[in-house]
Amino acid sequence: MTRVEAEVIGTERLVLVPQRVEHAREMAAVLSDPALHTFIGGEPATADELRSRYARMAAGPADPAESWCNWVIRLRAGEEGLEQGQLVGTVQATIVPAGPGGPALVANIAWVVGTAFQGRGIATEAARGLVGRLEQLSAVREVAAYVHPDHAASKAVARAAGLEPTDEWHDGEVRWLLRREAR
Fold this sequence. Notes:
This protein has helices spanning 24-30, 47-59, 122-135, 152-160, and strands spanning 9-10, 14-18, 67-75, 87-97, 105-113, 140-147, 164-170, 173-179. Helix 1 (24-30) packs across helix 2 and helix 3 packs parallel to helix 4. It has one domain (9-179): Aminopeptidase, CATH 3.40.630. It is globular. A hairpin with a 2-residue loop joins strand 7 and strand 8. It has 4 helices and 8 strands; from the N terminus they run E-E-H-H-E-E-E-H-E-H-E-E. It has an 8-stranded mixed sheet with strand order 1-2-3-4-5-6-8-7, with helices on both faces. By secondary structure, the chain is α+β, with helices and mostly antiparallel strands.
């Protein structure tokens, strides 16, 4: 399988830009609120920790059948209280084979928007943009996200992006899924 690369994705108000090590300093500030970790655990990373993490992500997975696609969310235009070009969060897709020996893929997605930028529909718009891009990849048969059952905002984002909850659980989170027919 050929690895999938993160490409620029544009939406009405946002530009999803492939994540680079140079984004670490600004993203450390965006993601600095401990409340962001209420459902996922851990604590905010420092700029140096994010720099190291982003460098590992840029190197990609050891398994050539996997793709790690990571984006920062940049505002296309300013709106009340926000500046044009400002980074406000991240989205990601880990793309893996759906099963042994076949060309079908599963894209596991996630999103996070800084606390100061929440409540504006940014996560929903970014997730929809990401899912729309993944739907253009004919081999992607499923798009999945893992959402904590008490995280109402993330459940709303998943639903708005076209995913539905399943009965599957992993590490205390519900698997949400969008299945596509083969083309």
